[in-house]
Amino acid sequence: MRDTGRIGVGIDFRDKTEVVLHSAARLARATGAAIDLIHVLQPPPAYDRVLNLGKAPDVDHAASEARTSLERMVATNVALTGIAARAHVYVGVPHVDLPERAAELHADLLLVGPSTRHRSGWFGVGRTAGRVARRALCPVLIAKRELAEQPRCVVATTDFSEASQPAMAAAAVWAKRWNAELVLVHVLEPIFHLQGWSAKIAGEKDVYAVEPTDLEPEWKSIIDGLALSGVCHRHEVVKGETVEAILEFAESAAADLLVVGTHGRSAVAHAVIGSSAEAILDGAACPVLVVPSAAGA
Questions:
Q1: What's the rounded Cα separation, in Å, for the pair 198 and 14?
Q2: 138 and 103 in contact (C-beta within 8 Å)?
Q3: pLDDT tens across 250-259, in order?
Q4: Closest Cα to residue 121, out of 105, 144, 96?
Q5: Distance, CA of 59 to CA of 70 (rounded, Å)
Q6: When you count CB atoms within 10 A of the terminal residue's CB, does the N or C end of the chain come out lower?
């Protein structure tokens, strides 16, 4: 995992902007990174222009106002005191342009807040944040709530695939920076879910192909590949269906950060590119760090 030198921060000027800013500032202070505040202004759709009696919106004026607001934020927001920060305003589609612009700015991490316009409110991810997480080439932190000033527990999921390694490596790095406990978790799903046929028999008990203790060789291979010197860590296997099991485990562990990877072979790894993504990202109460498999390159 490469060092975090620049943090891109998506700003939409809604009511959780302070949560996003404080989280970004804490990450920047932990890494010495600079911050790029990014606002993507999306022009109104055609029907809004029609309702406005054909008057074209003054996009240039709106962009100028947004830039002024961002620059004022950089200059006066207490959370950013002592942090090198810049303001950027673009016109486009937020979930497309935000990850693209962050890449152009060489961001090593992109931080966004969940959308308050989503049906599930502040704790839901919303369309923009979820789409950004799917498109970005760098890790994306979704600030479901303000990141703790001194996080104590980092939970990272693994399906034992090589593609999940970058997520665990990132989790180890952050745990070491914060002197937090790192908990690696694998979900063991019942056969009926994995095989697609009902394996509930005799007393409605789920049937599993293996038991948690059978997975110790897989854990050894995973752990041997991580830089865990000086990191307090443990690993756990939980039984159940992936999404529910991850959410319940993160809550029971009082996780300050939940780390998930992309592009692996199981439902965990496909979470941010398939339907499981919305459930994991929406359901988590803590901040979620989404790490693409390419982050290990």
A1: 46
A2: yes
A3: 999 999 999 9
A4: 144
A5: 16
A6: C
Q: Look at residues 164, 112, 105, 172 and name the one whose alpha carbon lies nearest to residue 140.
A: 112
What token pair was written down for 163? 């593609």
Q: How far apart (Å, rounded) are the C-alpha atoms in residues 222 and 217?
A: 9
Question: Six-digit token pair at 125?
Answer: 């991810």
What was the pLDDT predicted at 164?
85
Of 235, 131, 227, the C-alpha closest to 187 is 235
Q: Counting beta carbons within 10 angstroms of the beta carbon of residue 211, is it exposed (0 to 12), middle (13 to 18) or buried (19 or more)?
A: exposed
The token pair that represents 61 in the structure block = 């004026």
Amino acid at 233: H
Q: Cβ(139)–Cβ(290) under 8 Å?
A: yes
Helix (H, G, I), strand (E, B) or coil at 169: helix
Model confidence pLDDT, tens digit, residues 197-235: 544 444 456 778 889 999 999 999 999 999 999 999 999
Are β-strands 6-10 and 85-91 bridged in parallel, bridged antiparallel, or unpaired? unpaired
223: helix, strand or coil: helix
By CB neighbour count within 10 A (0-12 exposed, 13-18 middle, 19+ buried), where does 204 fall? exposed
Q: Write down all domains in the chain, each with its CATH number in brackets.
A: 1-147 (3.40.50.620), 148-297 (3.40.50.620)
Q: Residue 51: is its pLDDT beyond 80?
A: no
Where are the extended beta strands (E) located within the chain?
6-10, 34-41, 85-91, 109-112, 140-142, 153-157, 181-188, 233-239, 257-261, 288-291
Residue 229, SS3 per DSSP: coil
Q: Is the pLDDT of residue 122 over 70?
A: no
